[in-house]
Design a protein that fits this description.
Largest sheet of chain B: none
Structural class of chain B: mainly alpha
Order of helices and strands of chain B: HHH
Distance between the termini of chain A: 54 Å
Number of strands of chain A: 37
Number of helices of chain B: 3
Radius of gyration of chain A: 25 Å
Oligomer: heterodimer
Number of domains of chain A: 3
Strand order of the largest sheet of chain A: 25-12-11-26-3-27-36-4-37
CATH class of the largest domain in chain A: Alpha Beta
Strand content of chain A: 25-35%
Largest interface: A-B, 64 and 30 residues
Number of strands of chain B: 0
Helix content of chain B: 55-70%
Largest sheet of chain A: 9 strands, mixed
Chain lengths: 680, 65
């Protein structure tokens, strides 16, 4: 029975006591017996709910990161016939995005119709002012409050805390309050899932079974250990044992939540070489999975045994890279099994189970496309693309299912492939990109092809909707090259705003070598600068009043227009105080300044994790060669619709009120956006 | 025992005042406002976090190294 919870930080923690299981069983019985009454009540309520609606259904197709200038170019070249048709039928315009233009921030503004000051998501990363340590900004997972120790086992007697840190109220909850049903698929920052009248599948920041954002496993016989190593950003390297034509190794799993020592759970497996020299059989947990060189296996399901009668279910796909002359195999991060999820990844909880049974097993990881395996050279470009498109197809199947079953109300589905593919392949659009130096441009058309794929999806969606449905196709932000890194912590050090302990060079993450008694400002995350404020930061030295205001003004002015000393280009267009960027009850949690980089620049890899590299400007030579965490005016998203919308500049916050308006529901007072529908 | 939520009773008059403040403050509900105020206070006393947990939960996030 699946009743464990994992989480970033908490490891796996058992959620169910036997009493919980019993109560769940009784609740299920009650649910079954009262179903007919509830069905009739919902039908009547649903009819009343939509009496003011202008449409039968609103369908939102989210294409994360679709870049308007590329859309314009490909439209002009006739490569996007379906989007062109949509533009003629209704409209096409730019969609203003958030400060900073990052998916968790922008999609939270989409969901709530508010600026980050009201929904509390400012970055992927938030920092703890007590410890100066970062954390995932959107979810907090604690440990069970009460446990019972029985021998070497520790049994939890209560649920661990699991809280979505996105505040305010998403528009699908507002629709639900009005009796309107919604299907919300893979919209970022919906983990843990919202509870509302509808179904939802969680997305960004759902962890893997190790509790990370995605740790791939790379198996080899040794000799290639430099490719990735234990402790690297995205993967673990496991050295296998060979016995003739049999390879032996294991699947890493989570720490055993029931074991007092939290020992790592493992599943042994063997790979037996086939006779053809290009094939093998993976033997794991009584299953025999055929493997072919350079082809992904289907999803393989398995369970880690935590205690007698308690197992934790996981899924993974495998890619055999080499058999002879050194065995090599890649495994995707081990993910939550959607058919037997160990933690809630959907609302209602059985929805992921329904999708898995209906459509087959699917990737559940928040950031499902394994970008680190490509960055570290474990996956080739083509293997990464295959994975991204396989995930895309899984998502399309879910979207089709929702379009087929939700005939009235709302269907939203977000597709991540445009974002991930542009991050990893942008260098091939840019012959001068540092990451392309010394190598051939082997994927010049990959991004254009991806736009065509997305256009095909738009075409299919247009064919599947009815005349009384409104279709919105949108992206949360655009894209630009990421050629040069800006290490703002080094700049702060050079300018005397940040200090390191005597004699130290800061090569460690998370600001561990910063001397807080002499530091007035620091950087952690992708877009923010924090003041080391007395009374807020545990070792703060800057007074919260006038001293802070002056410091913020001074740093903002000095950084706005900062010139790259090597290229002579302007690297930072503008730095603004958070009081100017945000408005709302959670502004205190925001960075004190937000940085708007120019196209081609982004915060450095080191600075984002609180290192001080010693060089302000460096080339970005990583495979991750495109980005969007720059000035929001430079990376708006796109908005297409099959109906005419106001031609005033649209903002991502306008979509929630627009959708509510289409479905006949009034805009709540806290929402800032305005409906884009022309007056009736 | 079975839920992670508990209810707290406040006077209706106070609730009405809080509702007005919540609306002006940009909250989506009075519940959200109350939880925010309580979390801010509680946060001052509870900030435990360990380095290993931090490393683990951020691992694999493509945007950072």
């Amino acid at each position: 029975m699946p009743f464990s919870y994992i989480g970033p930080g908490a490891g796996i923690a058992l959620v169910g006591s036997f009493l919980v299981v019993l109560l769940t069983f009784l609740t299920a019985l009650l649910t079954i017996f009262t179903w007919p009454v509830r069905r009739v009540w919902r039908m009547l309520r649903g009819q009343r709910a939509l009496r003011h609606a202008r449409v039968q259904r609103v369908v939102v197709l989210g294409l994360d990161g679709l870049e308007p200038t590329l859309v314009d170019q490909y439209l002009e070249q006739g490569q996007l016939p379906n989007l062109a048709k949509l533009r003629e039928q209704g409209c096409y315009q730019r969609l203003g995005t958030t400060w900073p233009p990052l998916s968790p921030v922008a999609w939270s503004s989409f969901a709530t119709g508010t600026n980050p000051g009201k929904h509390n998501i400012y970055d992927f990363i938030a920092r703890n002012p007590e410890t100066y340590l970062p954390a995932i900004s959107s979810v907090r997972i604690g440990k069970p409050r009460r446990t019972l120790r029985l021998g070497r086992f520790v049994l939890p007697l209560s649920k661990p805390e699991m809280t979505l840190l996105r505040k305010s109220k998403p528009f699908w909850s507002v629709l639900g309050d009005a009796g309107i049903f919604s299907a919300v698929l893979r919209v970022p920052i919906t983990f843990p899932p919202d509870r509302f009248h509808g179904v939802q599948l969680s997305a960004m920041c759902v962890p893997d079974l190790l509790g990370t954002q995605g740790t791939f496993l790379y198996y080899s016989e040794g000799g290639t250990a430099e490719r990735t190593k234990e402790g690297d950003a995205g993967g673990d390297h496991i050295i296998v044992e060979r016995d003739g034509n049999v390879i032996r190794s294991f699947l890493r799993g989570p720490a055993n939540p029931l074991d007092q020592d939290q020992a790592e759970l493992r599943i042994p497996f063997t790979v037996v070489e086939g006779v053809r020299g290009t094939d093998a059989i993976l033997k794991v947990k009584g299953q025999q999975v055929p493997l072919e060189l350079n082809k992904y296996s289907p999803w393989v399901r398995f369970s880690y045994r935590a205690a007698p009668g308690v197992s934790i279910r996981g899924i993974a796909r495998f890619l055999l890279k080499r058999l002879h002359g050194g065995f090599e195999m890649y495994s995707t991060p081990v993910q939550i099994d959607p058919d037997r999820p160990v933690m809630p990844i959907s609302h209602p909880a059985v929805y992921s189970n329904y999708l898995a049974r209906q459509l087959g097993t699917f990737s559940t990881l928040g950031l499902a496309e394994d970008t680190w395996s490509l960055s570290e050279g474990v996956l080739s470009e083509d293997a990464f693309l295959q994975q991204a498109y396989d995930i895309h197809e899984e998502r399309i199947a879910m979207f089709r299912d929702a379009l087929g079953t939700v005939r009235r109300g709302l269907v939203v589905c977000v597709f991540d492939a445009p974002d991930r593919i542009q991050h990893m392949f942008w260098k091939f659009l840019d012959d001068d990109h540092p990451a392309l130096r010394g190598r051939d441009n082997t994927h010049r058309h990959t991004i254009a092809n991806m736009y065509t794929h997305m256009d095909d999806l738009v075409g299919e969606t247009m064919r599947r909707i009815g005349p009384d449905d409104t279709l919105l196709v949108m992206s949360d932000h655009g894209f630009k090259p990421f050629r040069r890194c800006v290490d703002l912590n080094t700049w702060l050090l050079e300018q005397g705003y940040l200090a390191l302990h005597e004699g130290r060079r800061s090569e460690q993450n998370y600001l561990r070598e910063v001397d807080w008694s002499r530091t007035r400002a620091y950087v952690l995350g992708l877009a923010g600068i924090y003041v080391n404020q007395a009374g807020r930061e545990s070792q703060g030295i800057v007074d919260a009043g006038r001293e802070k205001l002056e410091l913020v003004a001074e740093i903002s002015a000095a950084l706005s227009g900062l010139v790259d000393t090597e290229t002579g280009q302007i690297a930072i267009r503008e730095v603004i105080p958070s009081s100017q960027a945000y408005d709302g009850p959670y502004v205190d949690a925001a960075p004190d300044m937000v940085v708007g980089y120019c196209g081609g620049y982004r915060v450095s890899w080191d600075s984002a994790v609180g290192k001080v590299s010693g060089q302000v400007f460096t080339d970005n030579v990583k495979a991750w060669s495109g980005d969007h965490c720059i000035h929001p005016d430079l990376v708006p998203g796109v908005l297409f619709s099959n109906r005419k919308l106001d031609q005033r500049p649209a903002d991502i916050r306008d979509l929630a009120p627009t959708i509510l308006d289409l479905l006949g529901v009034g805009k709540p007072g806290y929402m800032e956006g305005e409906s884009l529908l022309p007056e009736r | 025992m079975f839920s992670n939520n508990v209810k707290i009773r406040v006077k209706r008059t106070l609730h009405e005042r809080l509702a007005r403040i919540a609306e002006v403050g940009g909250y989506s509900s009075v519940d959200e406002f109350i939880v925010h105020v309580l979390e801010k206070e509680a946060g001052r006393l509870d900030a435990s976090q360990d380095d290993a947990e931090v490393e683990k939960q951020l691992r694999g996030l493509g945007y950072i190294e």
